[in-house]
Amino acid sequence: MTDPSQHPLDRAAWAALSTRQAGLALGDDRARRLAPEYGLFAAAADRSEESLARLAALVRETGPAALFEADPPRALEGVRITPGDPISQMVAENPAFPTVGFEVVRLGDEDADEMLELATLTRPGPFFSRTHRLGDFIGVREGGRLAAMAGERLRLPGYTEVSAVCTHPDFRGRGYAAGLMGLVTRAIVARGEKAFLHVYDHNVTAIALYERLGWRRRRAVEVVFLDPA
Question: Which residues does the UniProt record annotate as the domain N-acetyltransferase (predicted)?
Fold first, then answer.
């Protein structure tokens, strides 16, 4: 059902939820979404009437979701669609790996509450109680506090998304974001995959950092939020 001529990153959520992360998804071969405790990502298999109807039903059954696509549908029965802020999709074309002069810790279930608190404060993107289980996460602690973190989100064949790169305001300016992002990207590349990410266009500071680290803008991606009407 997926158009073979379409680049997988144009509909990265479907590519992930129908392959490597299918075990975390609700739905079927017509439409899928991440279980709500993991995230908002949803997608239909294609633009057929049957697939869009299944996507609409899935939102009505399971609650709010979001589409991150090059060309999302404009109407779904029984679903309210709200456009989000403009987003760019970037890929690690020639990634740089800055020298890390600080101690890095692996993050897991025992850190989940702090990770959610940090993401809620800094707003790198939607983050929920089990988002940290989507991939590997690392961080920095200062005085016992979680000062910064970065990790992985969508995983599809040949690609993994870098996500939740954020630093607590009390600890900015110490190179944590660049260092952690470099380590996450290095691990992805070492697996023979390509790294990508999504960033709000208004986050010019983050975009400038990513460009310095060898990332380039691939294309605009629309985000629309879906709510049962």
Answer: 102-229
Backbone dihedral region for residue 190 (phi beyond 0: left; psi -120 to 50: alpha; all else: beta)? alpha
CA angle 8, 129, 189 (to 5 degrees): 40
HSE-CB of 145 using CA atoms within 13 angstroms: 11
pTM (2 d.p.):
0.94
pLDDT digits (tens, 9 = 90+) for 145-168: 999 999 999 999 999 999 999 999
Buried b (16+ CB within 10 A) or exposed e, 77-91: eebebeeeeebbbbb
Right CATH for 89-219 from 3.30.420.10, 3.40.50.720, 1.25.40.890, 3.40.630.30 = 3.40.630.30
